[in-house]
UniProtKB/TrEMBL annotation:
It is found in: Cell membrane. It is a multi-pass membrane protein. This is Glutamate receptor ionotropic, delta-1. SUPFAM superfamilies: Periplasmic binding protein-like II. The chain crosses the membrane at residues 201-220. Its main location: membrane. Residues 1-32 form the signal peptide. It comes from Hyalella azteca (Amphipod). Keywords: Cell membrane, Glycoprotein, Membrane, Receptor, Signal, Transmembrane, Transmembrane helix. GO terms for cellular component: plasma membrane.
């Protein structure tokens, strides 16, 4: 009575196709959510954080110093009270003549070799060689303060102290410090960047397959 024998078959095909498309959408959503979670999570763990870490993994990493600086003497002539510095000099730094070089040479070597670390003045590095491909380790190896010695009870001492305190309270010193040591560019903006098709095309492969199957089935149904 007017029953189309192919109707149920076509309906089943459409149900299967709808199920496949929904599966593709679910996979796409799952992939996108996992990708977003990975990008937003702080998962970068530094393999080396301290001098002790460098010594413990001395067979893997090299340590460089800036030639003709106090840092070289600090490591080279370290006594029994600085066992770590002494051992680093004997077993790591002095093993390779390239480990004593200029700031520029050390930075270039760090960029070329991910297993090389260098100790240098932080502000000088930021002002002249800062590179977002490099990371400054959290440990400060050498800390020093700059001072100008003056004779005790010098008549100019109270005046200088008053002016410095006044500059500090007014924020002038902070502005000068930011101007003098404000070199380098911020790297935070480069941590997250727009993803192109090359990074995300796999998320749409199944969806494209579903669309292709739907087009083929539609053509077959129209000609049968």
């Amino acid at each position: 009575m007017g029953y189309d024998g192919n109707k149920s078959e076509r309906i089943s095909h459409r149900i299967w196709l709808l199920t496949a498309l929904l599966a593709c959408l679910l996979l796409n959503v799952a992939y996108s959510s996992n990708l977003t979670a990975i990008l937003l999570s702080e998962t970068n763990e530094l393999p080396i954080k301290t001098l002790q870490d460098i010594y413990d993994r001395r067979s893997e990493y090299s340590l460089g110093l800036v030639g003709d600086t106090f840092a070289v003497d600090l490591f080279k002539f370290a006594g029994d009270n600085d066992v770590l510095l002494r051992d680093l000099w004997r077993e790591v730094i002095s093993k390779d003549p390239r480990n004593i070089a200029s700031e520029k040479a050390n930075v270039e070597r760090c960029l070329e070799d991910s297993k090389h670390l260098a100790i240098m003045d932080y502000h000088y590095y930021i002002d002249n060689f800062a590179d977002c491909r490099l990371t400054v380790l959290p440990e400060k190896v050498i800390t020093a303060s700059i001072s100008f010695p003056m004779r005790r009870n010098h008549p100019a001492n109270p005046i200088i102290n008053f002016e410095l305190l006044k500059m500090s309270e007014s924020g002038v010193l902070q502005k000068l410090l930011a101007r003098w040591h404000g070199g380098g560019r911020a790297c935070e903006s480069e941590l997250l960047h727009a993803l192109g098709l090359a990074e995300t095309y796999t998320a749409f492969v199944l969806l494209a397959v579903g669309v292709t199957i739907a087009s083929v089935l539609l053509a077959v149904e129209n000609f049968t």
